[in-house]
Amino acid sequence: MSILEVFETGKHKEEKAHIRNLIMIAKADGEVDEKELAFIEKMALKYNVSSEEVKQLCDHPEQVSIHPPVSKDERYQRMFNLSKMAAADGVLEFHEMALLRRYALGIGFTVDHLEQVVQCFAKAAYDQISLDEVSISVDEILGLA
Q1: Helix (H, G, I), strand (E, B) or coil at 54
Q2: What is the CA angle 21-32-13, rounded to 5?
Q3: What separation in angstroms does the CA of 75 have from each of 48, 50, 58, 60, 80?
Q4: CA distances from 144 to 115, 138, 139, 141 (A)
Q5: Fewer CB within 10 Å, N- or C-terminus of the chain?
Q6: How many CB atoms lie within 10 A of CB 11?
Q7: Is the pLDDT of residue 137 over 80?
Q8: DSSP notation for 97-108
């Protein structure tokens, strides 16, 4: 264990967990294509997750647990990113949708609205709808609008 791992912040753990979840979605159909890998690298850069950490997450995803975001905005952003990853290759596979449902529960969405929320995010990612637009739709589903 490196000195950085000892003093790793909760925020960085959350960000690594998000990258791990993106990797798991990418691997759900059995292969990671170039578009998916490019998206993972883009998100890793955005969340300050090093190339070495990404490789480690690819090789040993089980070593990082889910760290759910606290705020609604972060939850929506994470779900949006996961959905974009699932749609990156142009096909939303059954296994990818199953993982989206699982991650949606893990990051704080309730069972009551799970299917509607996941479908909304998946459609937004597939149709390239903005996060702002999908957030309005999700707020309506959750009765927050």
Answers
A1: helix
A2: 25
A3: 18, 22, 23, 24, 8
A4: 17, 8, 5, 8
A5: N
A6: 12
A7: yes
A8: HHHHHHHHHHTT
Q: Which is nearest to 20 in space by CA: 68, 52, 83, 64?
A: 64
Summarize pLDDT for 100-131 with one digit per residue, the tens: 999 999 999 999 999 999 999 999 999 999 99
Of 5-14, 39-48, 56-65, highest mean pLDDT: 39-48
- DSSP label of 86: H
Name every residue whose Cβ is closer than 8 Å to that of residue 50 and which is 6 or more positions away in sequence.
Answer: 44
Q: What is the dihedral of CA 8, 109, 98, 32, to 10 degrees?
A: -40
Measured in Å, how far apart are the chain's first and last C-alpha atoms? 46
